[in-house]
Amino acid sequence: MVVLGGFYVVMILLMVLADFAYTDLESLKRTLSEPEIQYSLKLSLLSCTLSTLMSLVVAVPIGYIMSRFTFRGQSVVDAILDIPIVLPPLVVGISLLVLFNYPPFHWLSRWVVFEVPAVVLAQFMVACAFAVRTMRVSFDQIPVRFEQVALTLGCNRSQAFWLVVFPQSRRGLLAAGTLAWARSLGEFGPILVFAGSTRMRTEVLPTSVYLEMQSGDLKGMLSVSILMIALSAAVLILARALGMQRINA
Amino acid sequence: MIKLDQIELHQGDFHLQQLCLDIPKGCYAVLMGKSGCGKTTLLEILAGLRPVQAGSIWLDHQEVTHLKPAARQLGYVPQDRALFPTMRVGEQLGFSLRLRPFSKEEISKRVNEMARWLNLEHLMERLPQSLSGGEAQRVALGRALASRPGILCLDEPLSGLDQDLHDEACSLLESIHQETGMTILHVTHSRHEADRLADRLWVIDEGQVRPSA
Q1: What tens digit of pLDDT does each residue of B21-53 get?
Q2: Which residues of A37-47 are buried (b: 16+ CB within 10 A; e: fewer)?
Q3: Residue ranges of the domains in chain A?
Q4: Which end of chain B is more exposed for a tag (fewer CB within 10 A), N or C?
Q5: Residue B72: its chain A contacts at CB < 8 A?
Q6: In this predicted model, what pLDDT tens digit does every residue of A1-12 receive, in sequence order?
């Protein structure tokens, strides 16, 4: 077991190191100074942040309801919430594209499809499913007893949630946000289909990797990949550091 | 006073059938029974956390059967105390007061009074995780008493305390009862606790409550 586990950890490290070994500092500097890549970086940061915030706004109430209440058809809703996780990414993009052919979505399609909102929506559709799952687990771990005591102390259900349960779910919120952000950053299939891959318009970092590969610029492609690795690592480190602060507080 | 009249509750294998209980105002009542016989369920019914299928519940001459927990004016201390992990002791004591129309000065005054009474003044900035069993128990009592309810329900309040703390806590409960004159329903499985504290003693068994000799 140790050998198998160790093999997997070593493989992860070797994959990342291979990316660094194959490119050089000069290519990295050149690629990152290109206006297209800078635009792609900015759009990625903006869209990932927006889709993460949207995911959390949706994931907190859904996660809480799924954790605390039982209702008819709950298992069906539970299965529906998992669809974006198991659906092939390309299918998510195609489904969004088709959905925006029907009213009421059709009325918005000229401002959404193949535009920046499509990038955010495509990221949100997948990232939110992971955020919901994380928040549900987080709420499952908070005993119902706290809410019950809060109710006897004078809270209504809403106050019991916001004053007692929500503050306890901050670590879950941080985990859900980190996961949603990292998923959004890596999202490619749905974005390619639903938002397109137009340079300086709907180009995010995974699209840049794809476009650099299409143009045969292998070092450029790896430079953008390294940038994505650095961003993902930074978010994970930040989340862990904030988590540690909470534990020590 | 606490009055339960013909209470019916059926959940799976657990049943309370035509359960009646009448505790006079100002009485320190102790309810005893074996594990799983429904002691905690009875307190949850009183607190409004568990709806009953039939019967009526009266607290201080007001029918509360269908009232929400917040409207029952009842203090409840669960067995595990359930101190809110993100709140400091001072915040726990003032929690119920901040939900009511009190000024900040009034809240602060009442919290300080409560802290002084329960000897919690030196713990006001502490989080529950850093409290001992006896300290946590006093904070849970203070949190339930802060809004000055007419009735206090205690679910095994002295469990998990060593002998010295147990005696100290018994004295504290006696002093709370004497000073406030409130009706207290104390659930326990300890005969020693019951003998020391109870004005009246009841036993719950097979879904029925009966006075104990």
Answers
A1: 999 999 999 999 988 888 999 999 999 999 999
A2: bebbbebbeeb
A3: 26-248
A4: C
A5: 152
A6: 788 888 999 999
| pLDDT given for residue B213 in this prediction | 67
Return mean pLDDT, chain A: 92
What CATH number is associated with residue B158? 3.40.50.300
B129 touches chain A (CB under 8 A): no
Distance CA B188, CA B1 (A): 20
Please give the CATH topology (third level) of the domain spanning A26-248. MetI-like fold (1.10.3720)
CB-side exposure of B158: number of CA atoms within 13 Å?
25
Whether B79 has a pLDDT exceeding 60, the answer reads yes
**Is any Cβ of chain A less than 8 angstroms from the Cβ of B162?**
no
**Domain count within chain B:** 1
Q: Which of B78, B100, B147 sits opposite A145 (nearest CB)?
A: B78
Task: List beta partners, residue B11.
Answer: B14
Interface size, chain A vs chain B, as Cβ–Cβ contacts under 8 Å: 60
In chain A, what residues touch B50 (CB-CB under 8 Å)?
Answer: none
**Alpha-carbon distances of A42 from A24, A39, A52, A203, A234, rounded to whole Å:** 23, 5, 15, 10, 16
Residue-number span of the structural domain to which B191 is assigned: 2-211
What is the average per-residue pLDDT within A94-101? 96
> Measured between beta carbons, which residues in chain B are less than 8 angstroms from residue A167?
84, 86-87
